[in-house]
Design brief:
This protein has about 500 residues and is mostly helical. It has 24 helices and no strands. The protein has two domains: about 1-370, no CATH class; about 390-490, Alpha Horseshoe (Serine Threonine Protein Phosphatase 5, Tetratricopeptide repeat). α22 (about 440-455) packs across α24 (about 480-490). The longest helix has 27 residues, at about 80-105.
Length: about 500
C-alpha cells in the first residue's frame, strides 16, 4: 500500500501542472472542442457515432466515449480533461507495480520499474495531450488483461479467461496498438511464468485480426489525404530502423523531446546500415545472454515487438516517430535496466537504492519541465521548432496558433517556413494563402491557394477562398505547376521515388 501511495503522490507532483494547461491546436480540435458529437456529451446518437466513426485514423469507440463523458461532466474545461489523463496514468503506474510484483515476485524491483515508467519524460506527451487519451486508456485495459493473464496462468479458469478476452477487446477498442499482445504473452510465458501455452493464445487472434483489418480499412479509406501513402516501403523500413535507435537514445537521454518529430525524407545510407547492424547486434546479444538471464531477451523483444505497430512500416500521420508510441514498449527496456542493475548491485543494496532514487529524481525533474512546454499551442510548438530542424508540421501549427491569437505578423514567417520546407503541404499552403489575404497581399495569397489546389484538388477550403480572390490576380498561365513552383512553393515537392540517399 505504501508503494502505491508513493507512486500516486509522485505522479501528482510531477504531472499536476497539466491542470493549468489548455487544449492545443493539434488533434485536440477534432477529438474534443470542435467535435460536435463529443461536445454534446453522452447521447444515443453519439454512442452510435462512436462505434461507426473511423475519421481519426483509428477505430476506438471507447476513447470517443471517454471524451464524451469528460464533456458531459466537465464541459470544455481543458484542465479537467488533463486531470483524467493523469488519473489514468497514475492508475497505470500502480498496475505496473502490482502486475510485475505478481509476475516476478520481486517487490522492490517492480516498484523501481513502476517509478521509472511513471516518471519518464516520454510519458508527458500521453498525459499532457488531451487527444492522446487513447494511449493511456488502452494501456489501462492492457495492464488489467496482463493481471488476469497472470492469475489465469496460476489457476486456469474458463470465466477468468473470458474476462481476459473482454478486457483485451476493450483495450483494442481504445487503440489498436495492442495487436501484439499474444506475442507479448508468449514472451512472459518464457519468463517469468516459465510455461508453454501456445494454444491458449488462439482465441486472442480473432480479436487482433479484427482490429488490424479495421485499422487497415481506415488507412485505405484515407486515400490521398494520408500523407504516408506516398512513402515507398524501402523508405519506411529505413525510417523504422532509424526510429528504433532514436527511441533507444531518447529512453536513456530524454532531451530534445518534441511534438512532432519530422519525417526525414532523405536518410544517409551509412545511418541506415549502422542502425541495422546495431539492432541486429543487440538482438543477437539479448538472445545469447538471455539463455542465462531471460529477462534480457524478454525485455528486448518486448520493446521491439511493442513498437512494431507504430514504427512506420504502415505509415499513418506525418510524424517520423512519437514519444507516445513508447508508453507500453518502454516496459521492456525497463525490465532490462532494473533487473540487470539489481543483479550487478546485489551485494551493495545501499548503492542500488541511491542509484534508483537519483534516476527517479532526474526523470521527475525533466518531466516536470516538459509539462510546462504543453501549456498552450504557442509554447509547445515554439519549443518544437527550437529543438528540431526543418519541421514543416511544427512550423504550420505554430503559425496557426499565433494567427489565432491575432499575431498575424509573427505567424507569417512560420507559414512561409512550413511551405518552404514542404511545398506539397497543402494545409500549410491554404493557411498561408488565407493569412496573406488578410495581410493585404492578395496576389501572393492566390499563388499559395493555387499551390494548395494543385497538390490537393479536393481541398475545399483552398478552392472556396481561391474562387473568391481569383479575380484580383488572374492567372496568366492557368495556374500551371511551373508558376506554382516558382512563386508559391519555391522548389519542387519531394518525390519519394526519385529521392536518393547520399
Amino acid at each position: 500500500m505504501a508503494i502505491c501511495l508513493a507512486l500516486a503522490s509522485v505522479c501528482c507532483i510531477v504531472f499536476g501542472g497539466v491542470r493549468h494547461n489548455g487544449f492545443i491546436n493539434f488533434d485536440d480540435p477534432g477529438y474534443i472542442y470542435e467535435n460536435p458529437w463529443v461536445r454534446s456529451g453522452l447521447t444515443g446518437p453519439g454512442l452510435v457515432w462512436a462505434f461507426t466513426n473511423i475519421d481519426q485514423s483509428y477505430w476506438h469507440p471507447l476513447t470517443w466515449l471517454s471524451h464524451m463523458l469528460d464533456c458531459q461532466v466537465f464541459g470544455l474545461d481543458a484542465g479537467w480533461h488533463h486531470l483524467v489523463n493523469l488519473l489514468l496514468h497514475t492508475a497505470n503506474a500502480i498496475l505496473v507495480f502490482l502486475v510485475f510484483q505478481q509476475l516476478t515476485g520481486a517487490r522492490w524491483r517492480s516498484a523501481v520499474l513502476a517509478a521509472l515508467f511513471a516518471l519518464h519524460p516520454q510519458r508527458v506527451e500521453s498525459v499532457a495531450w488531451a487527444a492522446e487519451r487513447k494511449d493511456i486508456l488502452s494501456a489501462f485495459w492492457f495492464l488489467l488483461t496482463l493481471w488476469l493473464y497472470q492469475r489465469h496462468a496460476i489457476q486456469p479458469g474458463r470465466w477468468r479467461y473470458l474476462l481476459l478476452l473482454i478486457t483485451l477487446a476493450l483495450g483494442l477498442m481504445s487503440k489498436p496498438m495492442l495487436v501484439t499482445v499474444p506475442f507479448l504473452f508468449l514472451l512472459l510465458d518464457w519468463w517469468p511464468l516459465k510455461r508453454r501455452a501456445f494454444a491458449e493464445k488462439l482465441p486472442m487472434i480473432p480479436l487482433v485480426l479484427i482490429s488490424t483489418l479495421i485499422t487497415y480499412a481506415t488507412i485505405h479509406r484515407l486515400g490521398a489525404v494520408n500523407w504516408g501513402a506516398a512513402v515507398p516501403l524501402p523508405h519506411r523500413i529505413a525510417n523504422a530502423l532509424i526510429s528504433y535507435v532514436r527511441y533507444l537514445e531518447l529512453t536513456f537521454w530524454p532531451q530534445g523531446l518534441a511534438l512532432p518529430y519530422p519525417y526525414r525524407l532523405v536518410i544517409p545510407s551509412w545511418q541506415i546500415a549502422g542502425a541495422a547492424l546495431l539492432l541486429a547486434g543487440l538482438t543477437a546479444g539479448a538472445l545469447w545472454f538471455g539463455r542465462r538471464r531471460p529477462y534480457l531477451a524478454v525485455g528486448w523483444l518486448w520493446f521491439i515487438a511493442g513498437l512494431t505497430p507504430a514504427i512506420g512500416l504502415v505509415q499513418v500521420g506525418r510524424q517520423g516517430m512519437a514519444d507516445r508510441f513508447t508508453y507500453l514498449p518502454c516496459l521492456g527496456l525497463g525490465l532490462i535496466v532494473v533487473w540487470s542493475t539489481a543483479e550487478w548491485l546485489h551485494s551493495r543494496p545501499k548503492l542500488a537504492v541511491g542509484l534508483s532514487m537519483a534516476a527517479a529524481l532526474g526523470l521527475a525533474v525533466v518531466s516536470w519541465q516538459q509539462v510546462t512546454f504543453w501549456r498552450d499551442s504557442v509554447t509547445l510548438f515554439s519549443h518544437t521548432v527550437a529543438v528540431t530542424s526543418e519541421n514543416s508540421t511544427a512550423e504550420r501549427q505554430l503559425a496557426t496558433a499565433l494567427d489565432d491569437r491575432g499575431r498575424l505578423e509573427d505567424a507569417l514567417p512560420h507559414y512561409a517556413a512550413a511551405v518552404r520546407i514542404e511545398p506539397g503541404f497543402f494545409v500549410a499552403q491554404t493557411g498561408f494563402g488565407a493569412a496573406l489575404e488578410r495581410h493585404g497581399e492578395t496576389e501572393l495569397a492566390v499563388e499559395h491557394l493555387r499551390a494548395a489546389v494543385h497538390y490537393c484538388p479536393d481541398c475545399p477550403d483552398a478552392r472556396l477562398l481561391l474562387n473568391q480572390l481569383e479575380h484580383y490576380a488572374p492567372a496568366s498561365d492557368g495556374g500551371s505547376p511551373a508558376r506554382i513552383n516558382t512563386r508559391a512553393a519555391g522548389q519542387a515537392p519531394p518525390n519519394f521515388q526519385e529521392a536518393r540517399r547520399p
